[in-house]
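anyone seen this seq b4? input:
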Amino acid sequence: MSSVPDGKKLVRSPSGLRMIPENGAFSSPFSLDEPQWVPDKECPRCMQCDTKFDFLTRKHHCRRCGKCFCDKCCSKKVLLPRMCFVDPVRQCAECSLVSQKEMEFYDKQIKVLTNGATFTVTLGTSEKSESMVCRLSNNHRYLFLDGDSHFEVELSRVSSFQILTEGFTPGEKDIHTYTSLLESQYITEGGNTRASGMLLQYKAVGSQDLQQLKLNAREDNKTASAWLVAMHKAAKLLYESRDQ
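predicted toks r here
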């Protein structure tokens, strides 16, 4: 239940100190598991530049991918919040770039999502709609919707997102681009479009039937549009976590 406190504990892994939930069931859906390190005996050479390891050239494991590199190819220490590391950890050049890009999501987009925004919400095929504030829970596991009524959607039970955008290119009126957590199809970023709404399908707890939820933002609601953009980026991370 979402009302259960999410206690955390500090643990030491071979990669560094991590602050993780005491109960693994309460892990953030954006989190990634630590990779299995490539065994030392299986990597006599750097997996990037092919330098041979010896007494002077030591091997290092990237904390994100688990591959084996020389110091030159794995020298950067970068924050990796998706694996709950407390301090920056050693990563290869490719992984460090990915982690640095993700930090924008954690620095900016998470705040946008947890602050919430106001939408016109329609449940299922109902003709009735309600003005509600939609926000991401502090543990990142739920979407809370509050208005005259309250309900929540567990992100782990969402099967797909459909971000609705309005195009401003001559000849284009409405662009409906499909964003799925189960397929690698995403909105094309940039261009003259505005995020105008979201349609998601999910399974309620205790049910295997898909339910539908639609959020519409008013044209002048910049906060809601920014929230939808942040949710689009969140969907990418959710897909990646599921595909791990």
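The longest helix spans residues 93-115. The chain is about 20% helix and 35% strand. kinda curious what u guys think
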